[in-house]
Amino acid sequence: LVSSVYNFITMVVDKSPLSGTALEQFVILAKTVKGAARTELIKQVLEAPGVYVFGELLDMPNISELASTSEKKYFNTLELFAYGTYKDYLANNNNLLDLTPAQKKKLQ
Fold first, then answer.
1. What CA–CA distance (Å, rounded) separates 23 from 48?
2. Distance from C-alpha of 75 to C-alpha of 89, rounded to nearest angstrom
3. CB 67: neighbour CB atoms within 10 A?
4. Are 96 and 69 spatial neighbours (Cβ–Cβ below 8 Å)?
5. What is the spatial distance between Cα 101 and Cα 8, in angstroms, rounded to a whole number?
6. Whole-structure pTM value
7. Which of 9, 32, 70, 104 is the most buried (most CB within 10 A)?
8. Are the CB atoms for 52 and 106 separated by under 8 Å?
């Protein structure tokens, strides 16, 4: 299931005929995703080149509700990318997702 969600999100973001930025495409997707698709979307947006603003996603009800679930590390990591620094990641990484090299570079 997770790989199908990943493939769907990648297809929509990479090949969307919608005008606008990659962030706008993630925001459109975030309005409807639920379950595992939410966490996959967060992983994708954190990895996406050219996306450096994350506050709009944090404000989405279905994304912000992750803060009070067992998947809160996804929300915490998205919040880190919105408001934090790599130094914050190093100080609090037990409450955050493990970052890929691309995500670490983006956060720095």
1. 9
2. 13
3. 14
4. no
5. 23
6. 0.80
7. 9
8. yes
